[in-house]
């Protein structure tokens, strides 16, 4: 049966329910919170009706580029209005438990075990850089930092020169 015959009856026609259609004109979008947290943005209006979305100086009405950043606005405020914006020099402190790597002796023991495994099972040096190998090693010992393939190669060469 041709496709044209399938939709020729009024029973098969798709007629949307008018109540299910959203009235786009009546929807009011909530304003998104601004990500501009630097104090320089207190001197700039980005919601000027004549220039929506474009930074405009509240003091003199200077229109900045839409791509203007903090430094450009700071220079304008300093040179035109003698307004100095203080730099915030606060370093973020991360609150998590530090995992110190193993001391050199314990790390060498673990490195030697990996080298022995690579030699005995004839694994390529690059195996130590594979994502799943690193994940496995982190499960066994989250403090152990796996050496890269170049370090492993040097250790294998040292092992054969013993």
TrEMBL record:
It comes from the Eukaryota. Keywords: Metal-binding, Nucleus, Zinc, Zinc-finger. The keyword Zinc-finger applies. InterPro entries: ZnF_BED_domain_contain, Znf_C2H2_sf. Signal peptide: none annotated. SUPFAM superfamilies: beta-beta-alpha zinc fingers (SSF57667), Hermes dimerisation domain (SSF140996). Its main location: nucleus. It is found in: Nucleus. One of its GO terms (cellular component) is nucleus. GO terms for molecular function: zinc ion binding. This is BED-type domain-containing protein. It comes from Rhizophagus irregularis. The lineage of its organism: Eukaryota, Fungi, Fungi incertae sedis, Mucoromycota, Glomeromycotina.
């Amino acid at each position: 049966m041709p496709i044209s015959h399938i939709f020729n009856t009024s029973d098969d026609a798709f007629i949307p329910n008018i109540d299910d259609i959203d009235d786009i004109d009546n929807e009011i979008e909530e304003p998104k919170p601004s990500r501009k947290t630097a104090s320089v943005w207190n001197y700039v209006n980005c919601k000027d009706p004549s220039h929506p979305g474009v930074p405009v100086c509240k003091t003199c009405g200077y229109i900045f580029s839409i791509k203007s950043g903090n430094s450009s606005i700071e220079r304008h405020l300093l040179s035109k209005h003698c307004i100095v914006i203080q730099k915030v020099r606060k370093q973020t402190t991360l609150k998590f438990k530090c995992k110190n790597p193993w001391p050199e002796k314990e790390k060498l023991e673990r490195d030697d075990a990996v080298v022995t495994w690579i030699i005995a099972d004839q694994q390529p040096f690059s195996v130590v850089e594979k994502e799943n190998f690193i994940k496995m090693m982190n499960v066994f010992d989250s403090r152990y930092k796996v050496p890269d393939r170049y370090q492993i190669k040097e250790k294998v060469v040292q092992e054969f020169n013993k």
